[in-house]
């Protein structure tokens, strides 16, 4: 089964659970407001969105190992590759003579034990560009070029430039080479990031030819972009006045402008921005590199061009190569570009100046847009933020602070986190703890969902708790659990689908960009051993108490941000924007207005006119002969232990065992479904009769790499009943297999559902998280809602992770006080229905020896499971009414969806549908919804299990206009003309998705999903052959299936009340209005 086939399942399984940890720096959603990279170019695919925005975190963190990814940013677990099977002596490094001849001086060469790599730092003689060339046997090759780009205001220049340079260049003179690469390469990563002080352009691929194609397009884009001569690209990506007809109102349009309107609609983001800008009032971090929507329209084209001229220069560049390609070839490619430049003063002009420390604390009160008519009583937020030093910290201190951060906040049992949440003063944590990705480190912590009267109490509680931790230190089990979690995470080096070489690059660049040592962040072993020894010798209190005192308690550089809900803020901001636009229009003559209408039309015409074939041919691509004819093979052996099915995947995992225990959910009563996510959280975060939850959490941290529990639901193609399970995922070093299964048994059978107060916290946290998702990932909410109107699996998922779930939580909050006994017995009933060896399945991924050794422990685990008589499957034949719906929230942007089941029209699945849906996203929807419509993203998603084909937009200024674009998709396909090159490109891009790079744990997990859904190897091969033989006639035929969405589709929009009112005025009662916040 392809990734796109699997994606819908993974989505459903992840999107409805509060317990899934995100892959990149997990802990609190507010973290994403400051965490770099703040902005990235690529549109948000639905697969990204429902996973809480892959690069941006929201989590209640049940798997401690993923917690660390941020704290240890300078030596993150992502900064180590699994030791290769062969000795490293086989790794080739660039020839010194070749390097010299090509104009590079070798500055330093080091062997990095942690990632079994030889890293060489070069300096380009002519320009001073610095290059890190990292050689090892990792086939997932990575390139990145990074420029220091400090903004002086909040017009968003770095961010708009990051979008714009990828819109055509000297060698690739088409509208968007970036999109051509998305369409037709085998990339394992392709994006760009804007940080507060730097801009990164990374690519990755496992195919060498493809990799060098990507590198060339990116180098040409950053050094020779067309955008510096093309005002229309600046208008499209940044901002412009739009006027279709001189009699209408003028509006603002622009991709970044609308992206940032979405960012500024989310309270957590507003808080993060306010915190950063108040902590750094005197340097570049005091402004928003992403752009403030109120300031973006002040940016001129001249300033934009000058910023590129000044900073996008080799003298200001740091360039990274990583992987198993030829290191001499890397230097040859670079020299071709670098040699055309002379040295410049960019490097000294882009230096980041440190913020001087305050002599006394500062307090700031900000307002954020709240829902009109909602209850504002517990809607305040408060966050305490410290700037820890006036200079970068040494590695030893940084490591100790990261460790301290994990001890205080890294797991649900961590004292600062636990005390804040148990206080009942707020619903969820805000602030990201220690943040060390900028020049100077910060520490932030606070609560949201606070009542105004309790603001001061929260501040006092934070200070008192920190004071107590400094005085009393930490429990030795907590220290051991943290140390094991960190060491496990470093050893495992599981970066998910994020390339290891890119994780390594981001770690290194975090120091290198400030002219510090780029090697140091890659070497964690010695400092970790030293820290361990210090803790053993002096005790943890002697190590951590001075850090709390120096950097936090006795540090006057403290900024307290209080956020107040303001139901009028959204309408005030809109009115202020309208007034500016009205004034602009009033100042224009009739000729001016006619010219503006002409320019608007001209820009749209350019956006909607396809590139000529000769321009498209300039972008290098692979041929079908470069593509493997067979799908990626994952070994699987299906066996049986004590009557329970066991799936085994014999793969090299660096001595880690990955396990999933799967229980069938089909016997569960329908009314209990919404309780399932809270049941999962309770298993991990309530105690047993012998251990409180802190001890249990610490035991998991000490003995394993983490355990998580969540529901997973999908349709099965050709079947009425959905596939619905609870999955318990765990991992441990092979020598800890017995401990892992003992702990899984303990959480499943011994945890007691008796802690009413903790359960109420779970409800409050889940409600806060769902509200945050509604504002930030409205397209995910819309998608889940549409699925719930169209099939049973969608309905189940929405009950556990959509608007219905939020409504359930709102009611449950009151019910916990009124009927705790009833809730507690419902949790027990869920356990009785689900936890049984009948219909249980165990999935294991490890090397053969570990798999064989684990059998006796699994046998014991299965014997301990209750054997319940087979219960009749519950009848879940439910759906939401198939009416068009608007979920109204306080927002400046919309998320617009439309979907239908195309199997109902008689369409039968063919592999070509993957190629076609990707092509629709990358051409028609990209051009019409994003480029010309001004949304941050527009895309479609085909769930091949259920037959649901959905259109979705992200941070969209439009509503009905976007629906009209969706409805015209069938005609787009009928009129489509494609030459063989274009079809080949579309096929290759689809295979790139299908063969997405996976680490061993992901391979084993994907194989499990295929097994559960009945997708055979024969079917995978058949679909692949259909993909590879896709022709133009397939596109034309698909048009009839797509028309079902136009004719019978259901609409869900997460939108502002103004836009919904306007839509209902234009099309009488088109949308049923639902208010949930």
TrEMBL record:
InterPro entries: Metalloenz_LuxS/M16 (IPR011249), Pept_M16_N (IPR011765), Peptidase_M16_C (IPR007863), Peptidase_M16C_assoc (IPR013578), PreP_C (IPR055130). Its main location: mitochondrion. It is found in: Mitochondrion. Residues 563-812 form the Peptidase M16C associated domain. GO terms for biological process: protein processing. Keywords: Hydrolase, Metal-binding, Metalloprotease, Mitochondrion, Protease, Zinc. GO terms for molecular function: metal ion binding; metalloendopeptidase activity. One of its GO terms (cellular component) is mitochondrion. PANTHER family: PRESEQUENCE PROTEASE, PRESEQUENCE PROTEASE, MITOCHONDRIAL. Belongs to the peptidase M16 family. PreP subfamily. This is Presequence protease. It comes from Actinidia chinensis var. chinensis.
């Amino acid at each position: 089964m392809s990734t796109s086939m699997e994606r819908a399942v993974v989505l459903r399984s992840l999107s409805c659970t509060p317990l899934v940890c995100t892959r990149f720096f997990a802990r609190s959603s507010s973290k994403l407001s400051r965490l770099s990279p703040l902005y990235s170019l690529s549109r948000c695919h639905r697969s990204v969105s429902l996973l809480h925005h892959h690069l941006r975190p929201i989590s209640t963190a049940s798997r401690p190992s993923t917690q660390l990814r941020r704290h240890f940013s300078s030596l993150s677990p992502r900064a180590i590759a699994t030791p290769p099977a062969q000795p490293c002596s086989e790794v080739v490094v660039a020839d010194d003579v070749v390097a010299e001849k090509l104009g590079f001086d070798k500055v330093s060469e080091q062997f990095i034990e942690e990632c079994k790599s030889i890293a060489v730092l070069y300096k380009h003689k002519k320009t001073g560009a610095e290059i890190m060339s990292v050689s090892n046997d990792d086939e997932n090759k990575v390139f990145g070029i990074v420029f220091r780009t400090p903004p002086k205001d909040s017009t968003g220049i770095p961010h708009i430039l990051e979008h714009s340079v990828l819109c055509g260049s000297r060698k690739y003179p088409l509208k968007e080479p970036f999109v051509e690469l998305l369409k037709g390469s085998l990339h394992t990563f392709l994006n760009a990031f804007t940080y507060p002080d730097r801009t990164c352009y990374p690519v990755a691929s496992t195919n060498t030819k493809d990799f060098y194609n990507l590198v060339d397009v990116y180098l040409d884009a950053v050094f020779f972009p067309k955008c510096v001569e093309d005002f229309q690209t600046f208008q499209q990506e940044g901002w412009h006045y739009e006027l279709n007809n001189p009699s209408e109102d003028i509006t603002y349009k622009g991709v970044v402008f609308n992206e940032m309107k979405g960012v500024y609609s989310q309270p957590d983001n507003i808080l993060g921005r306010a915190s950063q800008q108040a902590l750094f009032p005197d340097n570049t971090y005091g402004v928003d590199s992403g752009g403030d929507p109120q300031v973006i329209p002040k940016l001129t084209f001249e300033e934009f061009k000058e910023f590129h001229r000044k900073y996008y220069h080799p003298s200001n560049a740091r360039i990274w190569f990583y992987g198993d390609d030829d290191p001499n070839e890397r230097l040859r490619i670079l020299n071709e570009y670098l040699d055309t430049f002379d040295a410049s003063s960019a490097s000294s002009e882009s230096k980041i100046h440190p913020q001087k420390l305050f002599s006394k604390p500062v307090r700031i009160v900000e307002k954020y847009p709240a829902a009109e008519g909602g209850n504002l009583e517990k809607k305040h937020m408060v966050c305490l933020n410290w700037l820890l030093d006036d200079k970068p910290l040494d590695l030893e201190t940084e490591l100790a602070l990261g460790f301290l951060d994990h001890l205080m906040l890294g797991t649900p049992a961590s004292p600062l986190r636990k005390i804040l949440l148990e206080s009942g003063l707020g619903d969820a944590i805000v602030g990201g703890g220690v943040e060390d990705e900028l020049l100077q480190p910060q520490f932030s912590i606070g609560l949201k969902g606070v009542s105004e009267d309790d603001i001061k109490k929260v501040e006092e509680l934070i200070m008192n708790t920190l004071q107590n931790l400094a005085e009393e230190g930490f429990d030795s089990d907590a220290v051991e659990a943290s140390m094991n979690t960190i060491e496990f995470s470093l050893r495992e080096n599981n970066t998910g689908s994020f390339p290891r070489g890119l994780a390594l690059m981001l770690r290194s660049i975090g120091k290198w960009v400030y002219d510090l040592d780029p090697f140091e962040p890659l070497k964690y072993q010695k400092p970790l051993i030293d820290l361990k020894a210090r803790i053993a010798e002096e005790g943890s209190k002697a190590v951590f108490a001075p850090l709390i005192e120096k950097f936090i308690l006795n540090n006057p550089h403290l900024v307290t941000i209080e956020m107040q809900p303001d139901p009028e803020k959204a309408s005030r901001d809109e009115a202020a924007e309208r007034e500016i636009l009205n004034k602009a229009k009033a100042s224009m003559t009739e000729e001016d207005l006619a010219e503006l209408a002409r320019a608007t039309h001209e820009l749209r015409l350019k956006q909607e006119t396809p590139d000529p074939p000769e321009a498209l041919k300039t972008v290098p691509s692979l041929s079908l002969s470069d593509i493997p004819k067979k799908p990626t093979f994952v070994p699987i052996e299906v066996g049986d232990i004590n009557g329970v099915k066991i799936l085994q995947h014999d793969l090299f995992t660096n001595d880690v065992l990955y396990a999933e225990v799967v229980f069938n959910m089909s016997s569960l009563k329908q009314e209990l479904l919404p309780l399932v996510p809270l049941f999962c959280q309770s298993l991990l975060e309530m105690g047993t009769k012998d251990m409180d939850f802190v001890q249990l959490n610490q035991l998991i941290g000490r003995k394993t790499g983490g355990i998580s529990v969540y529901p997973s639901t999908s349709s099965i193609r050709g079947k009425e009943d959905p596939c619905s399970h609870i999955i318990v995922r765990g991992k441990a070093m092979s020598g800890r297999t017995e401990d892992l299964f003992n702990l899984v048994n303990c959480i499943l059978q011994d945890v007691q559902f008796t802690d009413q107060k903790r359960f109420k916290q779970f409800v409050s946290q889940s409600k806060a998280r769902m509200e945050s998702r509604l504002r930030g990932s409205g397209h995910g909410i819309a998608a889940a809602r549409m699925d719930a109107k169209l099939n049973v699996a969608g309905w189940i998922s929405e009950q556990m992770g959509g608007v219905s779930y939020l409504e359930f939580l709102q009611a449950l909050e009151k019910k916990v006080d009124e009927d705790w006994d009833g809730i507690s017995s419902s949790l027990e009933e869920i356990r009785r229905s689900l936890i049984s060896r009948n219909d249980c399945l165990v999935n294991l991924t490890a090397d053969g020896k570990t798999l064989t050794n684990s059998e006796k422990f699994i046998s014991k685990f299965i014997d301990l499971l209750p054997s319940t008589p087979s219960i009749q499957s519950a009848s879940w034949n439910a759906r939401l009414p198939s009416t068009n719906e608007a979920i109204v929230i306080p927002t400046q942007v919309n998320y617009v969806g439309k979907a239908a089941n195309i199997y109902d029209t008689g369409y039968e699945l063919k592999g070509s549908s993957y190629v076609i849906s990707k092509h629709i996203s990358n051409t028609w929807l990209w051009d019409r919804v994003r480029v010309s419509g001004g949304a941050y993203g527009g895309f479609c998603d085909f769930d091949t299990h259920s037959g649901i084909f959905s259109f979705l937009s992200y941070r969209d200024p439009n509503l009905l206009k976007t629906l009209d674009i969706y409805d015209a998709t069938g005609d787009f396909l009928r009129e489509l003309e494609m030459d063989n090159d274009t079809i080949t490109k579309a096929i290759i891009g689809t295979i790139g998705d299908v063969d997405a790079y996976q680490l061993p744990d992901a391979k084993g997990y994907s194989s499990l999903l295929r097994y559960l859904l009945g997708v055979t190897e024969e079917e995978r091969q058949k679909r692949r052959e259909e993909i590879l033989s896709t022709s133009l006639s397939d596109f034309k035929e698909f048009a009839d299936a797509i028309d079902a969405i136009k004719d019978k589709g259901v609409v869900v929009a997460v939108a502002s009340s103004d836009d919904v009112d306007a839509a209902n005025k234009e099309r009488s009662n088109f949308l049923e209005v639902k208010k949930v916040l």
